[in-house]
Design brief:
Blueprint: H1 13-23, E1 31-35, H2 42-54, H3 67-72, E2 80-83, H4 97-106, H5 112-118, H6 130-141, E3 150-155, H7 168-172, E4 178-184, H8 192-195, E5 199-202, H9 208-217, H10 223-233, H11 237-246, H12 251-264, H13 268-278, H14 282-303, H15 314-324, H16 329-347, H17 352-378
Parallel strand pairs: 1-4, 1-5, 2-3, 3-4
Bound molecules: zinc ion (ZN).
The site of zinc ion has 8 residues, from helix 3.
């Protein structure tokens, strides 16, 4: 496997070109904040940039042959320090480096919650604590071991509390040849005093074709499915990767089949389908409800006479327009509420069989009532 570089990130040609140029310049700004959703290329670009800066040769990608590249490729370069939120008051980044290196490899588009899971601490929130800030001072006081620069890459500066103010002087006037690369998602949650000391590198969300291309390159989805996930993930590659990884069956097909059976069939077929849906993995069930919500919202666009704005593949778009022709806004609102509640119930580990049966019966009632209502109106 090739160590991480710019080529791993789909699209983003302009952003890459700028960073590649900057890495080869004599003067690099000493504090930069890479700002973009965690599911965007924000971490990936900062990592590739750090590796290129440390590479002993000049070029647009780390050369992968020099000593620096061999070390940075395994995230063990002595001049590349990492700082990130951890769980535990006395703990610091250094206590979790093996898990962190695995996270960089497995989830370069991951959310903080993915990282806390990786640490084995589900449902807990970490932070960048006082001990960590002290360690940053220590790390940056070492002399450079190998190259031109030493780099501190801080992921999640929004997890830095007031103690972050201890770092201000360091960020403003860092030791010689020291670079701060901060990688964050939410400017409103980053200390303003830190924000104002950094040069901003804004990273846009991915575009749908970039996400679709990445999912196919990772062999997570075929062309059609990849497009569906791209629409649903809305620029967030981390989310798209998650959706595609947990779903074994094409989600659009699953939803349309479910709606069809709830609408046309009674009893027997519905129960058989409920049993099938209840057997899906919890994450796949969640993605079915998420896709359902997305699909219903596209139907609202159709009802509003804005079909051109619908973001669905051709086949599903036709189905959405056709179905929305038989429903009104009130019914659609009921369906959206039903799926929204169900998604929350699934997250709370509700009994899947009972849940899917209830939802199916309610979908049937909502869609059939509407039909009776329309035929009364027309007669
Ligand atoms: Zn190199």
């Amino acid at each position: 496997m090739i160590p991480w570089n710019f080529t791993h990130i789909p699209g983003m040609d302009l952003e890459k070109a700028e960073l590649q140029k900057l890495a080869n310049q004599d003067r690099i700004p000493h504090a930069q904040l890479f700002l973009g959703d965690f599911g965007s290329a924000v971490l990936g670009l900062a990592l590739a940039f750090a590796r290129l800066v440390l590479c002993e040769k000049s070029g647009v990608e780390p050369c992968e042959t020099c000593t620096a590249c061999q070390k940075s490729g395994r995230w063990v370069h002595p001049d590349l320090h990492f700082s990130f939120p951890v769980i535990g008051e006395k703990k610091t980044s250094n206590d979790f480096l093996p898990a962190w290196r695995a996270f960089l490899t497995q989830h370069p588009y991951g959310q903080p919650s993915d990282w806390f899971n990786q640490m084995g601490e589900e449902n807990k929130l970490g932070n960048i604590n006082v001990a960590e800030c002290q360690q940053i001072f220590q790390k940056l006081s070492y002399t450079i071991v190998e190259g031109r620069y030493k780099i501190l890459l801080m992921w999640g500066p929004e997890f830095l509390g007031k103690e972050g103010n201890r770092l201000l002087k360091l960020i403003e006037e860092p030791p010689d040849n020291t670079l701060f690369l901060l990688v964050g998602a939410d400017a409103d949650r980053i200390l303003p005093t830190i924000l104002s000391r950094c040069q901003l590198v804004k990273i846009r969300p991915f575009q749908d074709p970039e996400i679709a291309e990445a999912l196919q390159a990772l062999s997570l989805a075929g062309v059609h499915e990849a497009t569906t996930w791209a629409y649903l993930a809305d620029g967030n590659l981390g989310q798209a990767i998650h959706l595609a990884s947990v779903s074994e069956r094409p989600v659009a097909e699953l939803l349309l089949n479910w709606l069809r059976i709830c609408y046309t069939e009674s009893g027997q077929k519905m129960v058989a389908l409920v049993e099938q849906l209840a057997r899906l993995g919890r994450e796949e069930q969640k993605s079915l409800f998420q896709y359902g919500l997305y699909f219903f919202r596209q139907m609202v666009l159709s009802l509003a006479g804005r079909s051109e704005a619908i973001r669905l593949s051709a086949e599903e778009k036709t189905a959405a327009i056709k179905l929305s022709g038989q429903l009104d806004l009130d019914r659609l609102a009921e369906m959206i509420e039903l799926f929204d509640e169900s998604l929350r119930s699934i997250e709370r580990n509700a009994n899947a069989k009972i849940l899917f049966l209830n939802v199916s019966i309610q979908l049937h009632a909502v869609m059939r009532d509407q039909m009776r209502f329309i035929s009364t109106m027309n007669s």
